[in-house]
Amino acid sequence: MQKKNLQMQRMIFFLLLLTGLAIGASAQQATVSGMVKDAATKEPMPFVNISLRKAGDSTGIKGTISGEQGRFQLSNVKEGSYLLLVSYMGYQPRYLPVRVGELNNFLDVGAIDLARAAKTLTEITVAGKEATVSPKMDKKTFSIAGNVSQAGGSVLAAMKNLPGVTVTQDGKIQLRGSDQVMVLIDGQQTALTGFGGQSSLDNIPASAIDRIEIINNPSARYDANGNAGIVNIIYKKEKKEGFNGKVGLTSGLGALWIKEQNYPGIRPQYQRTPKVNPSLGLNYLKGKVNLFVQGDYLLNKTLNKNEFVDRFYDDGTVVKQQTKRNRTTRVATVKAGADWALSNQDNFSISGLYSREHILDRGDEPFYNKDLQRQRLWQFLEDEVKTTFTAASSWQHRFAQPGRVLNAGFNYTFHREDEKYFFTNFMPAFTGLDSFKVLSDERVADFNLDYVQPLHYGRFETGLKFRNRSIPVNMQFKPGENSPLDVRAGGWADYHEVIPALYGNYILEKEHWEMEAGLRVEYVKIDYKVNPDHPTYKSNGYEYTQPFPNVRLAYKLNDYNKFSLFYNRRVDRPNEGDIRIFPKYDDAEIIKVGNPGLRPQYTNSFELAYKTDWNGGYLSASVYHKRMDATITRIASTVPGSTLIYNIFQNAGKSYSTGVEMLFSHRVTPWATLGLNLNGYQHIMDSFSVVNLYPVPNTFSAGRESIFSGNVKLNGAFHFPHSLEGQLTAIYQAPDLVPQGKTYARFSIDMGVKKGVQHGRGEVFANVTDVANTLAPKKEVNGNGFHYVSTDYYETQVLRVGYSYKF
Q: Is pLDDT above 90 for 628?
């Protein structure tokens, strides 16, 4: 029997090794521009011949003539080394070396002076050779259309299959083991995904998204928050002449099997949960105006949580509990806008997004002693409506010099959370009815101004940003008989932040060397005013002015091999939810509370990366180190005489992460591309001591902890005859360090197929996530006087089928 099991394990491992992800590289193309002047008079010279030639053999590539103002431009120039020949009858020809790299879409060779000559010079040839295409090493872009195994699901589900990305059991995304990720929608922070969080990624249909960008080392033109990096989610927007669009329908079933049976005496857990997602995208382009609209509706029933927790206290007390949450979600999202070419130099865009998300949670939470005698049953109904509206406008002015651009933008977000909780507390001697309501309105206004100046060997970027953000919150308790709620902790709280910022970024690119250096300076002022009757917390706030530099140096050994060195400094400011003073009772005995005394976490990151390309594949490897000060995390503690556990955000001192990441991709046959993503890191948390103030002051201390963790992601893309494509993804996450404990290993496999129909206009697909139903996150937490172990058997296996049609 053991021999058969060993053979089966070897077979599974062999199959996994035959999988991978195709990450294609697209050729970089640029525009080369400049101005021709008379060397003596400095007057612009029109009708001058401009010729771009290969540096190695002087073969002509492109040509043009200068305009009336002496300006010229050559478009769609591929990466490589060239000679620019500028010639005019009666003048000495000029030869300028031009290097088109991968960092700049626009190159300005500046003013070229032509001197009069009595005779024509013979042609000059300079040795050199043409470079091959290489993608940027600080940014990776993935098409949602290529993620077959997660088609029809949410953005969050699609992201878990991307190289370098993991998803935690509570729905947070991680890059290289850190959940301090900044999520953008079309390059902007909005309340749809959360400022500093990822609150609604699981309710954004992937069908609405064109692509996802992952930026591990952001430059100074990005906001400074998010030490792990940036995830930019780009919505679909067509720009085809005339009227066109796409319509789609996805349906599915989840929770096909019961992973773990309920404790007795509670309501059944959801099974065979339906998922329905119709979508429609329309676009109309005529002349200088482009109109677009994208609409999605998502109906999703899910077993959102099914967590079993065993708590052990030093006095011998044992508490066993289950938290089961049946969730029904309805989300309607509409995004519409217009692009208008005001002139040949000016473009104006405006767009708006409206989203309404209605969540109904029906939860059961029984509590037992060590003899499995029920002590208490806590049931709740959460009725929550999230309404989001965003408006964005932008203006772009292109100067006569190609690539010289001025951009201005204004973005406004309104986000309302209207939550109502109704609790039934079944105790041996009585039944209590409790409720509370939370109303939160978030308003964010951002103004951006950005300028780009092309240079002969690079470009200079500069700009400013101003943000004004306010979030008034009100919580009202309605206690019942013998209420366990802390009704004194209710009331109002007002959060307000003002953030002006300036940045400058310089990019230099030579044949073998590249440099990018930038500096962002932010001033931040946070005011948090709370109800003066709150029993624990008082009004608080902070302010700072800090520099956030970034540096990138790269060296190309040749056209196929390249090294890059990165450094950046970033900050993670506490989000409003992290400092919110109200206790959260969706778990009646492990209660989450914010902390208005929380302060920013600063991170210094270093990375050395290497990339090599070959025909049909590439290898990218990097070594990185991150040092975090004032690490933000939750700390669990108890108070004397109670078994209740309070999870409160704290700054837990210094932490470190040192690791290696590798991405490998190779097209082994014309129909199969195999790949491997490895990420291994040493996670260290220094010793620390903190004081949890709620509900009464208590101190928690921890010694230095260390663990080696990581993940392995094996993906395969297969292209079969008759427009049939397939994908298989296998993910393994090693045990990892969390404050006061660790998470255990987890493993899952996703697979899917799609086929083009109706002469390429239509597409059908089918996929299943967590094929073996093996994903059940488990963790262990150790506190002063207690420890607990939890395992969440929530819904992970989902079968989906779908159809889409382009017209």
A: yes
- Give the count of beta carbons closer than 10 Å to the beta carbon of residue 703: 8
Closest CA to 775 of 745, 736, 734: 745
Assess contact for 680 and 659: CB atoms under 8 A: yes
237-265 in b/e form (b: 16+ CB < 10 A) is: bbeeeeeebbebbbbbbbbeeebbebbee
> 247-290 pLDDT, tens per residue?
999 999 999 999 999 999 999 999 999 999 999 999 999 989 99
What DSSP string runs through 551-607? EEEEEEEETTEEEEEEEEEEEEPPPHHHH--S-B-SSSSEEEE--TT---EEEEEEE
Residue with token string 């349906």 = 251
In three-state secondary structure terms, 2 is helix
For the chain, give the number of residues: 807
Two tokens, residue 477:
């308790």
What tokens were used for 12?
């599974």
Look at 13-22, 301-310, 315-324, 450-459 and tell me which has the smallest mean pLDDT. 13-22
Concatenate the DSSP letters of all residues of 176-190 into one string.
Answer: TTB--EEEEETTB--
Residues in CB range of 551: below 8 A, 6 or more apart: 515, 516, 517, 518, 565, 566, 567, 568
**Ramachandran region of residue 156, left (φ > 0), alpha (ψ -120 to 50) or beta?**
alpha
C-alpha distances in Å from residue 450, one per residue of 106, 392, 522: 16, 16, 16
CB-count exposure of residue 504 (10 Å: 0-12, 13-18, 19+): middle
> DSSP string covering 471-495, please?
EEEEEEEE--TT--S-GGG-EEEEE
Please tell me whether the peptide bond between 695 and the residue prior to it is cis, using omega within 30 degrees of 0.
Answer: yes
CA geometry: angle at 555 spanning 553 and 560, to 5°?
A: 135
Which two structure tokens, joined as six digits, stand for 344?
A: 């040949």
DSSP H/E element including 13: helix 2-17
pTM, full prediction: 0.81
For 512-529, write each residue's pLDDT tens digit. Answer: 899 999 999 999 999 999
CB distance 279 to 248 below 8 Å: yes
472 to each of 389, 536, 690, how far by Cα in Å?
17, 19, 28
Q: CB neighbours (10 Å) of residue 529? A: 16
Conformational region of residue 247, where left means phi above 0, alpha means psi within -120 to 50, and beta covers everything else: beta
Q: Identify the CA nearest to 215 among candidates 644, 615, 607.
A: 607
Q: How confident is the model at residue 20 (pLDDT cuts 50, 70, 90)?
A: very low
Tokens of 321: 């509990």
For every residue of 601-665, DSSP letters joined together read EEEEEEEEEEEEEETTEEEEEEEEEEEEES-EEEEEE--TT---EEEEEEE---EEEEEEEEEEE
Q: How far apart are CA 111 and CA 96, in angstroms?
A: 11
Contact 167, 175 (CB under 8 A): no
516 neighbors 507 (Cβ within 8 angstroms): yes
Give Cβ neighbours of residue 53 (< 8 Å, ≥ 6 apart): 59, 60, 61, 82, 83, 84, 85
Q: CA-CA distance, 665 to 675, in Å (whole number)? A: 4
Question: How many Å apart are CA 793 and CA 308, to the nearest integer?
Answer: 8
796 vs 157: CA distance, rounded Å: 10
219 by Cβ neighbours in 10 Å (0-12 / 13-18 / 19+) ranks as buried
Token pair, residue 608, equals 């050395």
The DSSP bridge partners found for residue 391 are 352, 412
DSSP-based three-state secondary structure for 379: strand
